[in-house]
Amino acid sequence: MSIVLQLVRSVVSPLTRTRLFRWCAPRVLPPVERLIGAASGGRVQLSALLVPSLVLHTTGAKTGEPRDTALMYTPDGRGRAIIAGTSFARDRHPGWTYNLLVHPDAAITVRGRRMPVVASTIGDDERDAAWARIEAQWPGYRAYERESGRVVRLFRLQPVADPHHASM
Predict the structure, then answer these.
(1) C-alpha 57: how far from chain center
(2) Rounded to an integer, what is the distance from CA 114 to the centroid of its chain?
(3) Phi, psi of 30 (to 5 degrees)
(4) In this predicted structure, what is the pLDDT of residue 14?
(5) Deepest in the core among 1, 40, 117, 143, taking most CB within 10 A?
(6) Would you put residue 45 in left (φ > 0), alpha (ψ -120 to 50) or beta?
(7) Residue 136 CA: distances (Å) to CA of 117, 129, 142
(8) Lowest-pLDDT range, 40-49, 51-60, 89-98?
(9) What range defines the domain where residue 55 resides?
(10) What is the CA radius of gyration of the chain?
(11) What's the distance, Cα to Cα, between the start and end of the chain in Å?
């Protein structure tokens, strides 16, 4: 990681844990991410300027309707992605986590490239290692879990072969 990116993360990271950010971000960032994603054909995400980011494509747990959510992810070093349902330290799990629990077959788009994945929850025996990897990327990120008063759901996204998209 470049020294500049590391420096920017160390300055921005504490700001993301302020009350003002936790109030503003859920209201402002999703529409901005959608606008930038639409304008760039899914190749650019605002959050990707600081951290690896993806768009998670799920099926609604109750509605069965398609749902898209821009998220930070952490590579696990084995070709898979780790995502955390922090929801800006809110006391409720984000909707996309319910979607993955009911419909673990999903897809992600990273830098404009869509690929099918299967989601699995990260168990208690692996949580500390997963959080350590996440916090190596974004210092203090686990504070969202402590501040939310709940155990944040962690998922591993495993890419799968898709016979309909063999060229991916």
Answers:
(1) 11
(2) 15
(3) -60, -45
(4) 74
(5) 117
(6) beta
(7) 24, 11, 11
(8) 40-49
(9) 3-165
(10) 16
(11) 27
Order across the sheet with 53-59: list the strands.
66-72, 53-59, 105-110, 113-121, 154-159, 81-84, 74-75
Amino acid at 132: A
Query: Structural domain tally of the chain?
Result: 1
Confidence of residue 40 (pLDDT cuts 50, 70, 90): confident
Residue 155 CA to residue 152 CA, distance in Å, equals: 10
Task: Quickly count: other Cβ atoms within 10 Å of residue 30's Cβ.
Answer: 13
Determine the Cα–Cα distance for residues 83 and 72; give it in Å rounded to an integer.
Answer: 7
Number of C-beta neighbours around residue 164 at 10 A = 6
Structure tokens at 72: 């930070």
Question: pLDDT of 138-157, one tens digit each?
Answer: 888 898 898 899 999 999 99
Burial class (CB in 10 A: 0-12, 13-18, 19+), 60: middle
pLDDT at 45: 67
Q: What is the CATH number of the domain that holds 66?
A: 2.30.110.10
Q: Which of 19, 18, 46 is nearest to 32 (CA)?
A: 46
DSSP per-residue string spanning 59-100: E-TTT--EEEEEEE-EE-SSS-EEEE--GGG-SS--HHHHHH
